[in-house]
Structures are given as structure tokens and as C-alpha cells.
Amino acid sequence: MSVPLLQTGGLTIRFGGVTAVDQVDFTLKEAELRCLIGPNGAGKSTFFKLLTGQLHPTEGHVHLRGQDISGARPHEIARLGVGIKTQVPNVFNAMTVQENLWIAARHKHTPAYATELTDQILSELRLTAIAHKEVGQLAHGQRQWVEIGTVLAGEPELILLDEPAAGMTHEEVERTAELIQDINRSRALVVVEHDMQFIKMIAKTVTVLHQGAVLIEDDVSRVLEDARVRDVYLGKGLAA
Amino acid sequence: MHLLNGMRGALIGAAIAAVAILTAPLYIDLFQIMQLTVFAAMAVLALSLGFIWGYGGILCFGQTSFFGLGAYAYAVAAINFGDSTPAIALAILVPVIFATLLGYFMIYGGISDVYLGVITLTVSLILFNLVNSTAGDFYKIGEARLGGFNGIPGVPTFNLPGDPSYILTPEQAWMVTGMALILVYLGLRVLIASSFGRIIVAIRENETRAALLGYDPRIYKLITFMIGGAIAGLAGALYVNWGAFVSPTIFALGLSAQIIIWVIIGGRGTLIGPVIGCLLLQWLVTEIGAQQAMDANFVLGAILIVFVLLVPKGIAPTLRDLAMSRLSRDTAPAPTADATAKVKT
Amino acid sequence: MDIAIIVGLDVVSGIASLVLISAGLAVIFGMMKIINLAHGEFLMLGAYATVLSVSAGVNIWFAMLVIAPVFVGLVGMIVERCLIQFLYGRLVDSMLATWGLSLVIVGGTTMIFGNTIVGVSSPLGGFQVGAYQSSLYTPFLALMALLLMTAVFGVMRFTRAGLIARAVMQNPDMAATLGVNPARVYMATFGLGAAMSGLAGGLLAPIAGVVPTMGAAFIAKAFITVVGGGTSILWGLISASGLFGFINQIAAFLTTPVFGEVILFIAAIILIRLLPTGISGRFFKGRL
Fold this sequence. Notes:
The complex is a heterotrimer.
Chain A: E1 6-15, E2 18-28, E3 33-37, H1 44-51, E4 59-64, E5 67-68, H2 74-79, E6 82-85, H3 97-106, H4 111-124, H5 140-153, E7 158-162, H6 170-184, E8 188-192, H7 196-202, E9 205-210, E10 213-219, H8 220-225, H9 227-232
Parallel strand pairs in A: 3-8, 3-9, 6-7, 7-8
Antiparallel strand pairs in A: 1-2, 1-4, 4-5, 9-10
Helix pairs in contact in A: 3-4, 3-5
Chain B: H1 2-27, H2 30-54, H3 64-81, H4 84-109, H5 113-132, E1 140-141, E2 144-145, E3 159-160, E4 163-167, H6 170-193, H7 195-205, H8 207-212, H9 217-243, H10 253-266, H11 272-291, H12 296-310, H13 315-330
Antiparallel strand pairs in B: 1-2, 3-4
Chain C: H1 2-32, H2 39-55, H3 60-82, H4 91-113, E1 126-129, E2 132-135, H5 137-158, H6 160-170, H7 174-177, H8 182-204, H9 216-229, H10 233-254, H11 257-274, H12 278-283
Antiparallel strand pairs in C: 1-2
């Protein structure tokens, strides 16, 4: 079998006495779409921070196409083709939507092509009308789209999306699901989400994190029926 | 094309200013020309901080360090070489080297804004003490005696490049200083409109996001800091050329505070703001000095407090926002110029 | 041998004076995470309060140890109410406001008292170590530094105010959960920090030239000490004062006092490159 796109082994991080991510072995194939779920505090966002170099693991390793990136800095990992939409919108507030995407596109491309690529993504995401609005003045849902656009403009080969549907209307959620499937035609994604309807729309394989460790990893239908998953999600509306 | 469109206003303004500078000696007497010369030299210094703080987000409280190092480098080199051209080059080079070292330790150390401000301020305090203590024959660089708190008098002023025997007249020195101000301003405008400029603004806005897109914030900040050091050093050379004299007071706390105040009242995130702030404050300080009724520090401090509390954005951005809101009420959607082109003047 | 004793005394007095001139700054930084750029002026006000009281006939010990800290402490509380409280959560603006304040105080003092050096004579005599003469005031300063640190430790460790202070240092929102109004904590912090600076200023009055601009001579060292020490008030201050006081005095002994300061700064900036949050950020995290 070929080298997996992303592989973590025994990945662990502790803050003081708390183990936020605990011995996680995670493997993602090229062009795979994986959903990552788990109750609040399960360590999903921390796991993403470990993958993108925002945090460095206490133990274990992260390999990207066989290359060890455990101690690398965020910009180095980004250059290897990993893009992330973080949980709280992480955008350039004082800049326009167009500029936000352009900055991302400019990293790989000439200014002229970056402008072209930006326009293309803006129209794909139906953001053209607000292209010249300052991002700081947009609503939360729109800022989410801007950040997704920024990630796409960086043309990463692995895309991490942390709660992409949060704060979006029902129609927007459906569009996001379509978009994810569209992206997945050529690129790999890991999606963290709370919204189970959304997960059902997009998921094939699901990994469940609980208290920092992998609880179960299986096909979406089996995961959703699993008793342990129901237990950890009790009261979270999983059955809905 | 796109770049030049955004710059049209700046170019027209610069052209008008250039004509005004070149013709000023025709209708202004020499005393005032001299006064304007030092104002312009200080305005270059204001631009250096306006750039690194307003665009790069680097809170440097000790921009006088680079200004003073530039001034001393110029003085020492001009005395030794008897020619101002290499001295000006050194006045830029020495502060850049210093900024590189200092910036490396601070920026690659990943320290917070608060620490960076305090450390840069401390650097200027220590340089002040250090240069102050260089009295006596022991402290000599080539022909130049550093002179401790007495400073270095009789520094050769600018000469025609390649002809050290042709010393510029005060009017010519004014034209050189004024044109240097315009060129630095235009150079920074071009830089800000470039990819580099947009990236440093992006890093100022959200360092994490910029890093997650593949930009290394540290190197961009370091380069920004170095550019600021270079411009401040040039301002130092222009300042020495004005007075033919340099002393340790160039590193003093009062001047560090003034530069900050210029940028605060003029406005961060514009280039014209710090220049306006600098000219206003210089004029004010000169007036206070002439009146002798109030202590200049007292007035400066009060101005700083009032602006921080009541006009934290500064004059230029506040006026711009007012104009923009007026504009967007009068006409349909706001103009779709890029962010950097928002300040047209 | 005598020279060793003298250098040893110098090191002790260097460390002690760093503790004294930095303590007020460290308290405000530890609790509020801002550097008070008017710190030097608080020292200066303490020195002026001492000099003026003594010339009005007050006992010098009372002037140094009571009047100076009380007066500057009151100034600090007023400053917090009239200025700093409007800038909570804006760290950089708070610092800029204190810088403005620093200029206002220097300018105001100059307008009232003029730009001439005033002073009081040292209340203690000297003593002899072999061929060298030293002042008894030096060990007195060391004793004061020790007492001050012991008092800070005692208050922080054993009193309710200390408990609240420790809570706020860890997490500013925690004061509210202890049923304390955060605004009052900050006012008290600023007042206490200012009082400690006032005390230091009072103690400096007999050995420094008292002028409106005297603060500038001390703040470089105080800034380095506090930044190097980090946000833990007690251990950060003690460890940084110890390290930097030692380096500074040895370097000053081998070269000149000014070069001693330069070497001190270089040591500090290398330290900051290695430990961006200061000594306490690395070794005394979450301690006093």
C-alpha cells in the first residue's frame, strides 16, 4: 500500500495535568473525506492544532506523506499543502473579502494570477457581491464563507474544516455540504462538525473522539448506531 | 496599472509638494527655510514609525535608536571621509544592521507587543547613557571624537556627490531634505501597495491566519523593522546635515515620546497622518519654546493622553472615516478601491 | 580580600537596588499585564516628597518610609481612577497613556520646582573595609529590599488580599467569582505598585540627584528586570534581580557602570530570545 496522506501515531498533548489529545492513531488516504465528531472538549480542535503546527505534541508524531512534521511551524506545514478553517473565524478583519482571498492565493502565484483565482473562487462561493466589503463588518455566517474561500485560494491538498456549518442557515448548510463533496473530487478533507444532519449528508468514514482518545472509527451508519457513541452524546440530540 | 490607479492621488499630491519645495526659497526667508528643513527631516522619521507601527503592527517605542545611530554614523563617517555621500550610505546601513540584530532577538523570540515596546524603549535609554559616557580622547573613531554629552560639533554637511569641495547651500539642503521626504513617502506608498505591503498588513491583522496560509510572520516583521531602521537612519543623516551637530539628546526619552505622539495623533495605518502629526507637533513645540509659559513635556503628555482616550485612531483615519460615511450616504456603494488606496492624499 | 568584600557588597547592593526600583513596576505588570511607563516619575515623586518633607522639618526616616509611599500611593490610585480604568483590555493604549502621564508629571514638576537638583544628605555614616570606604546606607538598602520582599511574600501567601491577587494573576476574571469587584482590585494594585515605587524613590533621595527627569536614569534597569522576570511578581522579580544585579555589578566592576548596563541589556535580550515570557514564565509558572 502506498504512503498515506496523513498519519499520526500515538499523538498526545498534555496541558499541565490534562491530557487533551491521548494516543491518537489516525490515518487518512489520498483524496479521502473523513468526518471527526465528538462532544465538546473531546479534543477535536486541539487535534487540528497539532496537525497544523499551532501546538506541538508532547508525544507521538504527525506524518504528512511520510514526512515527519511534528515539530514544524504553522507556515511550514501550510507550505506542504495543508489548509485549515479554524473553529472561530480566523480572517483578516480590516481587509476586504477580495483581499483576504488574494493574500492566500498570492502565496503560490503571481499577483495577476492570484487576482484571477480570487475572482474565480469568489464567484464559485457566490461572494462576488460582497467582494469589496470589509470582512470585519460581515455576519458570522458570511465570515465562515470568507474563511473557506481563503482556504481554497491557498490551493491546499489537505483541507481541515473545523465546524464549517456553524452559524449558517439551513440552505447555506446544504450548499456547504455540496461544496465539500465537490472539493473532495480532487482533494482530501477532514471535517469536524456537531450537526449530525450535516454529517449524514457528507460522511463516509467517521472517527469519534472522546476525552482526547479515539472511541470508534467506522462507516457512518455503523457509528451513528453505536451504543457507546450514543452514550457520549447523550442529550446531544444524536438520534434526531 | 492597478497599482498606478491607486497611486494617482499620491503622485499628484507629491508633484505639487515637490514644486512647492523647489520654489519655497523664492518666497520664504532663510530662517524659515532652515526651520522647514528640520521639520522635513523629522517627518521622514515620523514616516519610519508610521510604516512599521501603522502597517507592520510593530510597536517600537525606541525609534530614536535608529535615528540617533544614523545621525552618529553620518557624523563619524563624514568627518573621517570628508565626503557626505558614503556617510549617508553608512547612516542607513548602521541602523539597518542594528535593527536586524535587535529585531532578530525580539521577533524570533516571539515576544509580546508589550515586551517589544518596552525593550525598544530600553534600547534607546541605554544608547543615550552609552553615548553620553563617551567623553574624552579615548572614545574616538578615526578622526571623530564622540565627545560624550557635548556631542560632535562641526560635522561636514552634504556635498555634491563625487565633489566634496562643493558644499550644498542651506537652500539646496532644504530641497534635498524636502525631496527625500517625498521620495520616502512615495517609496512607502509603492511598497504598501505591493504584495509585500499587503502581506505585512495581513500579518498585522491576524498573524495566525497568515502563518496558516504559509507566510512566515517573523521574516516579514523583521524586514519591516529593518526598513523602518533604514528610514530612521536616513532621517538622522538629514537631521545632522541641518545642524552640522549631533549630541546624545538625539536618543533622549523626550524624542522617543514625540515620535509616538506624531503617529498617534496623525493616525496609524496612514502615511500622511504621521507626517501631519509631526509637522503640527514640531510647530507647537517651537511655539511653546518661544512662549516659555508652559513646559513642552507637560503639553505633549496631555496631548498624548487626550488622543489615547478620545481619538485613539488619530486625525487622518478619523477624517477619512467621516468623509467615507458622508460619501457612502451621498452616493451609492463605496468605491471599490483597494484598502491601501483609501488614503488618497 | 578587601576588594572581594567590596565587590561582594556591590553585588548585594546592586541586587537590592534592582529589587527596590522594580518592585512597584513588577506588581502592576504581574496583576494588570501592562508596563507603567510613568514608573520613573513615581520614583521621582517619592524622592521629591522626601526632600520637601525633610526641608519642612520632618524626620528623614519618617519622610522616606511613610510620607513618600503614602503620597505616591495616593497619586497612583487617583491615576488609576482618572485614566487607566478607561483603558481596561487595551494593553497598548494603557501603556501609551502612562507614557503621556510620565511627560505630564515631568513637565508639571519642572514648572513647579524648576529644573535644579535638590537633595537630602544620607542619614547614615560610613564604615571601613581595609583600605576601602563604604557607606552604611548600602547594607540598609539591602535590608529594606529584603523586608519589602518578605512583606510581599507574607501578604500574598497569608492574607485574603493576597489570595485575590493570586487569583487575578492567574485569571483576571477570577476576581469576580471571589465576590470582589475587579475595578477595586485594579485600583488597589495600581495604588500599591505606586506606593512601592514611592518608597523606592524616597530611599533613593539621599543617594541620587533629585530632579524632575531623574526617573529616566532608573527605568531602563527596572524595565529589563521586570521583562526578564516575567509576570510572577515575587519569584520573577527576585530571580531577575539576582541574575541581572550580579551580571550588572560584575560587568560594571570590570568595565564602567555604563558598559555594565549595556552588558546587562545584552544578557536580558538573549534571555528573552530563549524565554519569551521571562524567567518566571518558564520556571515559576503560576507561582506568586
